[in-house]
Design a protein that fits this description.
heterodimer, A: about 450 residues, alpha/beta, eight-stranded parallel sheet, two-stranded antiparallel ribbon, 16 strands, globular, B: about 240 residues, mainly beta, Pectate Lyase C-like, eleven-stranded mixed sheet, 2 helices, about 10% helix, about 25% strand
Chain lengths: ~450, ~240
């Protein structure tokens, strides 16, 4: 839908509505009504980007217990709080050693512009962390600008080739993503330009559906053999990650470990996507908060916690989120949506253009349309050229530094000399739901619903 | 015969192929030696015992003969050289092959030549389900029959079947071309029979010749995409 001029609001401003005594239905709120009207008008389900927008228990529902009498804190700038992380030293002879545990999640060239991919590589490399390819192969721009590049191995195998495999610093076998566990990728025709089509061996301009199952293996026994093949091709040098969308993380993590993964990547339902059915994004998968303890439990029961590293993604926004994920047992985190925002996504400077697209700065999620005013989720040359990869990379590097310093601030307050020393005992929950999911006590009590104590 | 315990043992003999006996040597040593091998070398693998990931990641113009049966992913991600398997091959034969030739004298299990980007895969016997799944430019010639869901989401390349094809052939196919001499149990979504024109007879003759076959191209039928699912449309909702 193209809106060429901004229509006069058909409804009274919010304040007037309240004064009129009108009551909005909690069940049929305005967004729901608009969804029904849209479905009735078009006959096709809504496809959009971004992750789950519904409110779910999250890191916001956890608080840290700072040090005081019983534990003592570290001095802010004087005492060291390390942040580095080694990923993939279980079997790979060349594990990644990153300066910060905040990595960049997989996002494809195709979903993103070449400039955006380059900016992600620049920003990540500046702070010594990794970036990740996506469903569409490796571009020279991102390989050239990425010190540590993770090469995704997806069901579609678009652009998969052994030359790039050997160039990768790590391989991530993707079983699913948090926005759509059990679903394959989508890329609508507006973004299948000649270059994107060429890299994926597809006709230009088609609405592309990616497979949701790998073409040559099914289940953990096959995966073990598949991982063996990838190790043989790369002479056992390259770390192999297995990425799962959070649905049954206890079993999936255990099976990934059994299959020989060096690293498990766990993506919760708030994790973003470039194009997926809204009904899928909002209704399939579990919150990041609920997923982490299950994965950590599986690792601990197998004696593999910290040996097979856990990377958590899906709703990481602040250094507090980083610290909370790590306190729950993650070795590292990955950011996608937040990284795009740091590059310039949903920037208010494009407010007029978001409005012209029927959206608004802070709400824009039509990544599938390829008309991103910020030049990030597009293949349009004019729009893409708006994003300066050097300046955007700098913004991302700034943001990554802030995340790292914020996490350090909290870790020092908890008396920890390394982010990895954060532990569940440092946390309490604000709500019963978060307490049960994160398996940390409700603040002020010793109660963890389903685990210990009683209210 | 060498055991691959010392680097000098991997050097090919001047008067014939290097023989690697997998009854003694680990697969890992074999593959590393093959990765370090130079063009023009010949290798013979004995006692493969159905082991997985044999001769994967080859990236030089070498000639490898596997005397016996191979497990999963034989000649996976193959480039440039030639791999011949005298027995049968397991799941994912020559998966994601880029170039070169892989030739199986016996049968191949499911997902043969899956996602292959180029090169030629010849299976003298039958191939299981999902043969040529998501193929992206590879040419496949099967002497016998192929199983169900073959050429699923096939994007580019040619699949030639001298026997019969199973159910749902070419489901959700893109631009790959399929030639079948025998019967097709059923066609998948958006896959249709198409006219066999002169240019198709010509490319089919070339493919059959490359595979060392004497079948008559005129006996085949051609199948490909109706291109009705290329764009999301409300009337196709049940096909997604």
């Amino acid at each position: 839908m193209t809106i060429t001029s901004v229509p006069t609001p058909a409804v009274a401003p919010v304040q007037d509505i309240a004064e009129l005594g009108l009551r909005e239905s909690a069940t049929f709120d305005r967004a729901t009504i608009a969804d029904i009207q849209r479905a009735a008008a078009t006959g096709v389900y809504d496809i959009r980007g971004w992750g789950a927008k519904r409110k779910v228990p999250h890191f916001d529902d956890l608080l840290f217990l700072g040090a005081s009498m019983s534990r003592y804190p570290l001095e802010g700038y004087r005492e060291k709080c390390d942040t580095d992380v080694v990923l993939g030293d279980r079997y790979a002879s060349r594990p990644l050693h990153l300066a910060t545990p905040v990595t960049i999640a997989g996002m494809s060239f195709g979903a993103l512009s070449a400039n955006a991919k380059e900016a992600l590589g620049r920003g990540a490399s500046e702070v010594g962390t990794s970036t990740t390819t996506g469903d569409g192969g490796m571009t020279p721009e991102e390989r050239g600008q990425s010190k540590h590049l993770v090469y995704q191995y997806l069901p579609s195998r678009y652009g998969m080739n052994p030359d790039d495999l050997r160039k990768a610093d790590a391989i991530e076998i993707v079983l699913g993503q948090g926005a759509k566990p059990g679903g394959g990728g989508m890329l609508l025709g507006q973004k299948i330009t000649e270059r994107v089509a060429g890299m994926r061996t597809l006709p230009v301009g088609i609405d592309q559906r990616s497979a949701s199952r790998h073409p040559d293996w099914t289940g953990p026994d096959d995966l073990e053999i598949k991982i063996g093949e990838l190790r043989e091709i790369t002479d056992w040098k390259t770390p192999i990650y297995v990425k799962i969308g959070a649905s049954r993380p206890y079993y999936d993590t255990a099976l990934a470990v059994k299959s020989g993964a060096d690293v498990v990547v766990l993506d919760g339902m708030q994790g973003g996507t470039a194009a997926t059915q809204q009904v899928f994004i909002e209704n399939v998968g579990i919150p990041t908060l609920a997923a982490i303890p299950q994965a950590v439990q599986a690792l601990q029961e197998l004696g593999m916690h910290r040996k097979v590293q856990l990377i958590v993604s899906g709703g990481i926004r602040t250094g507090a989120d980083v610290a909370k994920a790590m306190a729950l047992g993650a070795d590292a985190v990955a950011i996608g949506t937040a990284a795009l925002i740091a590059l310039g996504d949903n920037d208010p400077r494009y407010a007029a253009e978001y409005s012209a697209l029927g959206s608004a700065a802070g709400f824009y999620d039509d990544f599938q349309d390829g008309r991103d005013p910020a030049g990030i989720t597009t293949q349009d040359p004019e729009l893409s050229s708006r994003l300066d990869p050097v300046a955007a990379g700098k913004r991302l590097a700034n943001y990554l530094r802030v995340l790292t310093m914020e996490a350090q601030t909290i870790a020092r307050a908890c008396g920890k000399s390394h982010l990895h020393n954060l532990e569940p005992e440092d946390l309490v929950a604000l709500t019963i739901e978060a307490s049960a999911m994160a398996r940390v006590p409700l603040a002020g009590t010793s109660w963890i619903p389903g685990v210990q104590g009683s209210f | 015969m060498v055991t691959l315990t010392a680097p000098e043992a991997t050097a090919p003999a001047l008067d014939g192929p290097t023989v690697v006996d997998l009854a003694g040597a680990p697969v890992r040593d074999l593959n590393q030696a093959l990765h370090q091998g130079a063009g023009g070398q010949s290798w013979t693998i004995t006692n493969p015992g159905g082991k997985h990931s044999l001769a994967v990641g080859i990236n030089a113009d070498v000639s490898v003969t596997i005397e016996g049966h191979a497990g999963y992913y034989a000649a996976g991600m193959h480039q440039k050289g030639t791999v011949e398997i005298t027995g049968n091959a397991g799941v994912g034969l020559a998966e994601n092959i880029m170039s070169g030739t892989v030739h199986v004298k016996g049968d191949a299990s499911q997902s043969a030549a899956a996602t292959g980007h180029g090169g030629l895969v010849v299976i003298d016997g039958n191939a299981g389900a999902r043969c040529g799944i998501s193929m992206k430019g590879v040419d496949i010639v099967v002497g016998g029959n192929i199983g169900h869901m073959s050429a699923f989401m096939a994007q580019a390349g040619r699949l030639v079947v001298c026997g019969d094809a199973g159910d749902a052939l070419g489901d959700s196919i893109y631009e790959a071309r399929i030639y079948v001499k025998g019967t097709v149990a059923s066609l998948g979504a958006d896959c249709i029979e198409k006219p066999l024109r002169a240019e198709h007879l010509e490319e089919l003759a070339d493919l059959l010749a490359a595979a060392g076959r004497t079948d008559n191209p005129a006996d085949f039928k051609r199948y490909g995409s109706a291109r009705n699912l290329y764009h999301f449309h409300v009337d196709n909702s049940t096909a997604y």
